[in-house]
Design brief:
349 residues; alpha/beta; 7-stranded mixed sheet; two-stranded antiparallel sheet; EC 2.1.-.-
Amino acid sequence: MDQDKLNAVLGRFVDDLGATMAAGGIVVGHRLGLYKALAEGPATPDELAERTRTSPRYVAEWLRAQAAGGYAEFDAASGTFSLSEEQAFVLTDPDGAVYTPGAFVLALGALRAESQITDSFRTGAGMGWHEHHDDVPLGCEMFFRPGYIANLVPTWIPALDGVEAKLTAGARVADVGCGLGASTVLLAQAFPKSTFTGSDYHAESIELARKRAADAGVEDRTTFDVASAKDFPGHDLDLVATFDCLHDMGDPVATARHVRESIAPDGTWLIVEPYATDTVAGNLNPVGRAYYGFSTFLCVPTALSQEGGYALGAQAGEAAIREVVTEAGFTRFRRAAETPFNNVFEARP
């Protein structure tokens, strides 16, 4: 046995064990406002506990774990903990360009289904989105929404051929698989002359989407329907969008055909998918690792719970998406933009 290789595996184990437990601590910090309070200035455990009306002994242990994991700074001379500007940036603002606690809410929500997923390995059965813990849809919104805030209106829409001008003038838009409506609301806020219809098969998500739209003041130009991706409402649409959800569908080709039937002759289908290459080897990196993990617990089980026989998974890659789009009758397909976490595709009739 190669001792260096063994030590490398053990080192990975220690890192992963610490990261697994850190996920719980990050969610605790999110729920109790500990990061936001610490961002106000350096604090001892007693001081942070007073700011947040929490138990000093628990806060002390939490702070030590945060510092050990690189999510907080510790000054031994004063016994205080603090957040750097960069740590505060990614840990304290749910409306910012990055909000990492949301990813951990999603991850812990997904892991609650470990026993069911273990059984699914034995049987091949699926597990629908609606069967997961409530933290899955809530965490999903928190995970993806910051990226949409940073990219959807500023860069993704302008990257599409002629779409920004249509939205500005007034267009009809369908947001398919909208979840809690984060993308729908952002578009409605940016383009007040356009109308938007969000749809999702998960009734509880649609209920929250309606509330999100009302809270944002865009309920007058947004509607939300409980509908599958194969029968969402609307016709002669200028834009159809699917955000990080096509790979979750049991029959993405049927969805693509319905999109093709629903859009105008000069309409556009915006397809946002997790960043991936076309090969397994090309996805063996930190981003691919995270997405393959989520896909094992969420994406593949969700697809297998539906009719259709597909299970693209979160790392399907451009070639697989192109094949789905082309089979459905679209004649134009291109990658319009990308980020470290997303590929953005444009399909036209």
